[in-house]
Amino acid sequence: MSLYGIVLPLHSIVRWLVVIAALAALGRAVYALVSKKEWTDLDNRLGMLYTMSMDIQLLAGIILYFFASPLTTAMFSNFSAAMKNSDARFFGMEHIFMMVVAVVLAHVGRALSRKAQNAPAKHRAAAIWFGLSLLALLAGIPWFRPLLPFIG
Asked: In the chain, what percentage of residues exceed pLDDT 70?
């Protein structure tokens, strides 16, 4: 089995773990903010789980992007032709850009929520930045491709 055949299914499966982690961290932040809850270890752990899952996903994506994907290999060999192909352009430029933005926003949210001085500020920072990160994540997911490419 090729590197592509190993990393692509992993990347596809982890995508859903990232979405679940994002929803959990964001949902908890919004709930705790509205309910005026204290910042707890659960809040911290959900933020950590989200950013860690994003980092794992980014690593798998970088392996695909630079070493394994036939789409990016073709893009690197003929950039101008690749920009005329919607799949190559999406994976070569748009997807990676949106996902790096999502990772950065998640990390900003984690850092700001941990450094905030009180529970409402912590939850507000987590809700805003994790929400923005989730939007970028959802915008960058290739919804036009099979949701699990190794099934069917």
From this structure: 96
CB-CB contact of 10 with 46 (8 Å):
no
DSSP string, 87-133: HHHIIIIIHHHHHHHHHHHHHHHHHHHHH-SSHHHHHHHHHHHHHHH
17-35 residues labelled b (16+ CB within 10 A) or e (exposed) = ebbebbebbbebbbebbee
Q: Give residue 50's pLDDT.
A: 98
* pTM (two decimals): 0.92
Distance of CA 85 to the CA centre of its chain: 24
DSSP character for 145? S
Domain ranges of the chain: 3-140
Question: What letter would DSSP give residue 38?
Answer: P
**Is the pLDDT reported for residue 68 higher than 80?**
yes
